[in-house]
Write a structure and sequence with these properties.
Layout (H helix, E strand, L loop, with lengths): L4 E2 L2 E2 L4 E2 L5 E2 L5 E6 L5 E6 L4 E5 L5 E5 L6 E6 L5 E6 L4 E5 L5 E5 L6 E6 L5 E6 L3 E6 L5 E6 L5 E6 L5 E6 L4 E5 L5 E5 L6 E6 L6 E5 L4 E4 L1
Length: 222
């Protein structure tokens, strides 16, 4: 695969889809996400841009320009109307997927934004930063609702529980933390890994958590 391109494949059939390569970025593609309909793809690149693509044709629908640093993560909301992007420029941006217009810039972090996500309702946005904090914003008012403070290192991953009431963060301080999404209170510190935690996720029911670490292990928490 060429630098600055993304490849789309159907793994179930072991066949390449047409087109088998989507090209247009001028640097590494670090993050990508399908919308829930599966007909559009959003990509984030080290070239400081985000692109929305038509999957069937490979045509670039929009180029989202505005970030001043590499793009760390991108995500559609559930109804496919919005795209959220995080960047090494310390900001998070919210875009209309139909028009490609930037509707909000969410600021406040002192270091790079390493991860961003919507809750399943699309009403909340969470950001994780190298400054060791996470933030929850309203996707409608664009106001910061809570700041999640407690980690002693950068936060590399963040996600909402399926119900949207909890936020999970993973950090270089070797811990993951579970937070109340409304109050910002830390409900539990998940300790046991012996090195940085790079990944964390809830199961579908929201009653189990799995974390992945640089210590070469994954841990399941109930």
């Amino acid at each position: 695969m060429e630098r600055g391109s993304a490849t789309v494949r159907d793994n179930a059939l072991s066949l390449s889809l047409i087109p088998d390569s989507i090209q247009g970025h001028t640097a590494e593609v670090l993050s990508l996400c399908f919308n829930t309909l599966g007909n559009q793809l959003v990509t984030g690149s080290f070239d400081h841009t985000v692109a929305i693509w038509d999957v069937s044709s490979g045509r670039r629908i929009h180029t989202l320009i505005g970030h001043m640093g590499e793009i760390s993560n991108v995500q559609f909301n559930w109804d496919c109307s919005l795209v959220v992007t995080g960047s090494m420029d310390k900001a998070c941006k919210l875009w209309e997927s139909v028009s490609g217009k930037c509707v909000a810039t969410l600021v406040g972090h002192k270091e790079e934004v390493l991860d961003v996500c919507f809750d399943l309702s699309g009403q909340l946005i969470a950001t994780a930063s190298a400054d060791g904090t996470a933030r929850v914003f309203s996707a409608t008012t664009h106001q910061r609702l809570v700041t999640l403070q407690g980690h002693a290192g950068e936060i590399s991953k963040i996600c909402f529980s399926p119900q949207g009431s909890r936020v999970l963060t993973a950090s270089s301080d070797k811990t993951a933390r579970l937070w109340d999404a409304q109050s910002g209170v830390c409900l539990q510190v998940l300790e046991g890994h012996t090195d940085e935690i790079f990944s964390c996720v809830f199961n579908y029911e929201g009653d189990a958590i799995i974390t992945g670490s640089k210590d070469n292990t994954c841990r399941i928490w109930h």
